[in-house]
Amino acid sequence: MKINKLNNAISIVHNLMEERIRPGNIVLDGTVGNGNDIMYMSKLIGKTGKAYGFDIQNTAIENTRKLLSTLDYKNFILIKDGHEFVDKYVEEPLDFIVYNLGYLPRGDKTIKTKAHTTKISIEKSLNLLKRDGMICIVAYPGHEGGMEEQLVIQDLLSRLNQKNFNVLELKFINQKNSPPILYIIQKINSNGVA
Ligand SMILES: C[S@@+](CC[C@H](N)C(=O)[O-])C[C@H]1O[C@@H](n2cnc3c(N)ncnc32)[C@H](O)[C@@H]1O
């Protein structure tokens, strides 16, 4: 993996996207927010790919739609619904999935991802993932409710069968103020279900 700066979970995720995502891939952003992560993926999959994006807030969907409208092709489907209902909208196998949890930067901090629904969504995403596909999850234990969410994710992922999934937990052990924790999951067996 080619990483320029190791100081930030999102830049590691973007480097992984560059490494893994190819034109024509099908990808999903479980929390589009201001659209930066789905934009990164939309450029990599090009006009032959497809990017699904979920968010529960109108503001997030509209901010993302505005950002993606600067692309000269439309390879995305934005869904204003909870990512816990992902299987209602997505049936095809996915190459790459990202969740940047918590609240919308510069938005309403009371509207944020929750342990219970995040767990449901990740379980469904694990089943939608293609063999060799990856999921990146950025969790924020420093936010209110964020520690509970991170522990639920850790518990879920630590129980995955190692014959089916590789699972990494990356944390910045010398950073102050509860830095984010990054989970990277790779499906290694096409029978791998959660
Ligand atoms: C940290 S932001 C995402 C940042 C975004 N990926 C970006 O590049 O700007 C988290 C987002 O999760 C959304 N969210 C909260 N609960 C959700 C749920 N159940 N399903 C989908 N999105 C949710 C919030 O509305 C918020 O916009």
Overview of this structure, please?
This protein is of the alpha/beta class. 33% of the residues lie in helices and 24% in strands. It contains six helices and seven strands, in the order H-E-H-E-H-E-H-E-H-E-H-E-E. A seven-stranded mixed beta sheet has the order 3-2-1-4-5-7-6, with helices on both faces. Helix 2 links the parallel strand 1 and strand 2. It is globular and about 40 Å long. The site of S-adenosylmethionine (SAM) has 24 residues, from helix 2 and strand 2.
* Major sheet: arrangement of strands: 3-2-1-4-5-7-6
Q: What low-confidence regions span 5 or more consecutive residues with pLDDT below 50?
A: none
The bound ligands are:
S-adenosylmethionine
Oligomeric state of this protein: single chain
What is the CA-CA span between the terminal residues? 26 Å
Characteristic key phrases:
single chain; 194 residues; alpha/beta; seven-stranded mixed sheet; 24% strand; globular; binds S-adenosylmethionine
Task: Provide a compact summary of the structure.
The protein is α/β, with parallel strands linked by helices. It has six helices and seven strands, in the order H-E-H-E-H-E-H-E-H-E-H-E-E.
Describe the secondary structure blueprint for this structure.
Elements: H1 9-20, E1 26-29, H2 36-45, E2 50-55, H3 58-68, E3 76-80, H4 86-89, E4 94-100, H5 115-128, E5 129-139, H6 146-158, E6 165-171, E7 181-187
Parallel strand pairs: 1-2, 1-4, 2-3, 4-5
Antiparallel strand pairs: 5-7, 6-7
This protein binds S-adenosylmethionine (SAM).
